[in-house]
Amino acid sequence: MFGPIIHASARPSQLSFLDAPLRADxxxxxxxxxxxxxxxxxxxxxxxxxxxxxxVGKSRQVRTRLLSYFRLPWPEHRHARLLRExxxxxxxxxPSEFAALLRExxxxxxxxxxxxRRGARPLDKxxxxxxxxxxxxxxxxxxxxxxxxxxxxxxxxxxxxxxHKAPLVSAVRVLNDALGLRxxxxxxxxxxxxxxxxxxxxxxxxxxxxxxxxxxxxxxGPCVAACSHDEYRTQLTRARAFLDGECDTPRLELARExxxxxxxxxxxxxxxxxxxxxxLETLDGQLMRVREALQRPSFAYRLPxxxxxxxxxxxxxxxxxxxxxxxxxxxxxxxxxxxxxxxxRATALTVDALEELTLLEHWFRTRAEEQQRTxxxxxxxxxx
Length: 384
Ligand code: SF4
What we know:
The chain folds into three domains: 5-119, CATH 3.40.1440.10; 125-292, no CATH class; 296-383, no CATH class. It is built from 14 helices and eleven strands. The protein has helices at 27-36, 62-69, 78-85, 97-111, 114-118, 144-149, 165-179, 212-215, 229-243, 249-263, 267-295, 329-340, 351-366, 378-383; strands at 5-9, 42-47, 53-59, 88-93, 127-131, 140-143, 157-162, 299-305, 308-316, 319-325, 374-375. A four-stranded antiparallel β-sheet has the order 1-4-2-3. Mean pLDDT is 81; it is low at 10-22.
């Protein structure tokens, strides 16, 4: 349960919607905020003249935060420019700061507001590996925010999040090389060997790509029909198995090659292989931490609420699966019923879960005292 949504709109007579981006006088909006907003946790939305959501934010003190926008220097400050484009402001009070944060995350996910995408989002700090759908997909290292914004990418597999890009890129390159996966741009046309007789006379069958990875046997060559669909899929499945912690072949293979190089006194090659092995081992360690976070048993979190009775959250698979106010017996029953269903033990994130996992990770890491409000089961917290 959240507080009512409160709207602040400048009267049309005082605000030209057509000229909204150039509007100089924000005082009608400011006056409504001054009159109506309270200093409590909440979420606010800045809306354009056509009702489009320009920005979603949250604050522990909504009134103070909203009024601060009106003091920002224009045009230097991004949020001052945002205010010039804003025709309406809506805000709703939240039971707690945690509730506001969760609501903000879900609203950003739902609306992908322009100013949230342009600005710094918590997800911008993280990186992920994306395994897209498609006949010849490539492992892609992306900002977590970019992966989460791919609305059409709900079926993509997302692995992460990771804190640093450079080691991730190195490790994915090693994995690609070890398994012969492509790493070229999406625009490079692919032609698999089993594409059908229709292509049998295609001159591309005869050519070799201008790509050193094919020449050095680090790519199967799906762009020149050097492999079949099944051969490529098999290697991709191995990559997924490595990322899921179910197969160690790429690492063992590198270790074996390094031992052979050392035994043959090829020290330069052995050193090169050692660096690649180290990159994979670093990635393996990071993947283990991600899996631990995802597979952490479900737990419950009970928080005081601004609206009266405490609020209970059920967290599983790295996201808030259910929430209920303690005096709402039906909602509590539903939460307890969900708690009794088995946990899925996910190994990969969905796009939707990505933002909540990072939110929860950050919330509990930066507020150690909040752990005391958690318990392995909701039943335990309800007894207090
Ligand atoms: S060989 Fe072809 S498919 Fe492989 S990376 Fe090079 S261009 Fe891409």
